[in-house]
Every structure is written in structure tokens, then in C-alpha cells.
Design goal:
Blueprint (H helix, E strand, L loop, with lengths): L6 E9 L2 E10 L4 E6 L8 H12 L2 E11 L6 E3 L1 H17 L6 H8 L5 E3 L6 H68 L8 H15 L2 H18 L8 H20 L4 H21 L4
Parallel strand pairs: 3-4
Antiparallel strand pairs: 1-2, 2-4, 5-6
Length: 293
């Protein structure tokens, strides 16, 4: 059974007066490629998040986003009252000296001065983090299930194309017999037109014809292609937890080599048509394999 690299997982929950929404998206990629967008509060846990994603999802372009909405009444920004009062007192004294009015604008000016507003950075609560980690794992599990469902659809489509190649391979046999007779007839016609029929050594002619037809023989390629198709389906149906996408891609490359060799030895239009159809099915297989884990 194969898995797709496409998937989506989402979790939404509340912890410590915070509403947290996390989303994980997975797309196909040759290697593991992880991108994270997380609040600074959880940045220290990024390595742990990446490890969790790479171990469970193995391969693909992974995007993880954590949205944080604080429902608490307290703000991280605090007013430093002693410094504000000191600034305000100095400004009031200057206004009095200059016979200027002291009002709300004086307070606003004091609030903009250095160190009046200070930001207190929150430290990460380990219990809060454990809740977040459990939800990350839940979202990852959603992706794994999504990948399995997508994998079934991919498996069906790929199997149909491999079986089509096997069926087309069986159609080549009748055309091969016809091709040999065609080659013999063509050579005899050429000799006849050249008025060389009487001077030809028939034994030598038969030897050369056998040598020529031996070079055109494609039985080995047909046997190897059939074996590759069987091995491909066997690998496709393996109940394996490991990724099979790369292995299947290697097998499809070997299938392509045998199909190309059969095409180069064809010398017959009907066989060439069959080869073109096999190549079409192989391209569909390769396209689908790009998304197989």
C-alpha cells in the first residue's frame, strides 16, 4: 500500500486563556522540506517540532502555521508608574516656569518618553506546551490518514496503467511473426529488382537473414519488461510502513529502458504504435509517482 505526499491537518483548542489554531499542509517534494510560522513564545521548541514532523511524515514539503489569540485581560506591555510620574513632574515644573498650561497633552508627551512603557516577555509553560504538542501530533495523524486515502486512489490509477502495459506487451507477438515474413519478402524483392537472384548463395543469404533477424529479436526485452511490471505491482502492494515512491520510480525507469529498446528494434509500424501506447501509460505512471511517498 502506498501513501500520497499530499495532506492537511488542523487543530483548534484553548489553553491558559489563549485560543490556538494550528494547521499543517503537506505537498510533494523530493526530500523533506519543513517551513514553520510560529509565535515567538514557542520558537524555542522549533527543533522539537521539526523532529516530530520529519519522523512522522518522512518526505514532502511541509508547512506548519500556529495562530495565537490571547483572551487574557492582562497585557504584556506595562506602564512604569514611577518613571512616568517623574517625567510628568519635570514637565509640569518646566510648564510652570514658562507659564504654560499643564493638561492631558503633557501626560501624552510623558508617555512617549523612554522606558515609560516596558514589555514583559512571557515564559513558556511546559504544561501548555505539552497540550500544544499533543494537538500537533493529532494534526499529523490527520495528514497520515489523508495520505492513505489519496494513496488508494493513486494505487488504483497506477495499477491500471501497469496492467495496460502488460496487455499491450502481449499484442506484440503476432506482429513479430508478420514482421519476419515482411523482412524476408522485402529482401527478396530488393534482390530481384537488382537482378542478383541467380548469383546469391542461398545458404549465405539464410545466414545473413538469421543474423539480421537476431539483431531484431526482442524476446529478452519483452521478458524483462514483463518481470519489471510484475515487480512493480508487487512493490506497489507491499504492506510497508516505509516510503516506496523512490523505489517505484527506479523500477519505472527500467521499464522505460526496455520499452525504448523494443521500439528501436521494431522495424514495423504496428509494433511502433504499441510502443507509443506503452510510453503513454508509462508517462502517466511517472507523473503519479511524483506524489507517492
Amino acid at each position: 500500500m502506498i501513501k500520497s505526499m499530499t495532506g492537511f491537518g488542523r487543530a483548534e483548542f484553548e489553553v491558559n486563556n489563549k485560543k490556538i489554531t494550528l494547521e499543517i499542509k503537506s505537498l510533494n517534494s523530493k526530500q523533506i522540506d519543513i517551513n514553520t510560522r510560529i509565535p515567538s513564545l514557542y520558537r524555542e521548541k522549533e527543533i522539537e517540532i521539526r523532529k516530530e514532523l520529519s519522523e512522522k511524515l518522512v518526505r514532502g514539503k511541509i508547512d506548519l502555521t500556529i495562530y495565537l489569540e490571547n483572551h487574557g485581560e492582562e497585557s504584556n506591555s506595562k506602564i512604569n508608574e514611577p518613571i512616568l510620574k517623574s517625567y510628568f513632574g519635570h514637565l509640569k515644573k518646566i510648564n510652570d516656569d514658562l507659564k504654560l498650561l499643564t493638561d492631558n497633552s503633557t501626560l501624552h508627551a510623558a508617555l512617549r518618553l523612554p522606558d515609560v512603557v516596558k514589555t514583559e516577555y512571557e515564559t513558556l509553560d511546559e504544561e501548555e506546551w505539552q497540550v500544544i504538542l499533543e494537538n500537533i501530533r493529532e494534526a499529523i495523524q490527520q495528514i497520515i490518514e489523508f495520505r492513505l486515502q489519496e494513496g488508494k486512489a493513486l494505487e488504483n490509477d497506477i495499477s491500471e496503467n501497469v496492467n495496460s502495459i502488460s496487455e499491450l506487451l502481449q499484442k506484440i507477438g503476432p506482429f513479430e511473426t508478420q514482421r519476419i515474413e515482411t523482412v524476408k519478402s522485402r529482401l527478396n524483392d530488393s534482390l530481384g529488382k537488382s537482378n542478383m537472384t541467380e548469383n546469391v548463395d542461398k545458404n549465405r543469404f539464410e545466414q545473413e537473414l538469421i543474423y539480421y533477424l537476431d539483431k531484431m529479436d526482442m524476446n529478452e526485452e519483452k521478458v524483462r519488461l514483463e518481470n519489471h511490471c510484475s515487480y512493480f505491482l508487487e512493490t506497489l502492494n507491499q504492506d510497508s510502513q516505509s516510503a516506496n515512491g523512490k523505489k517505484l520510480a527506479f523500477i519505472s525507469q527500467e521499464m522505460g529502458r526496455e520499452i525504448n529498446t523494443i521500439g528501436s528494434k521494431a522495424y514495423e509500424s504496428n509494433i511502433q504504435r504499441v510502443v507509443v501506447e506503452m510510453k503513454d501509460h508509462l508517462e502517466r505512471i511517472k507523473e503519479q509517482l511524483l506524489n507517492v511517498l
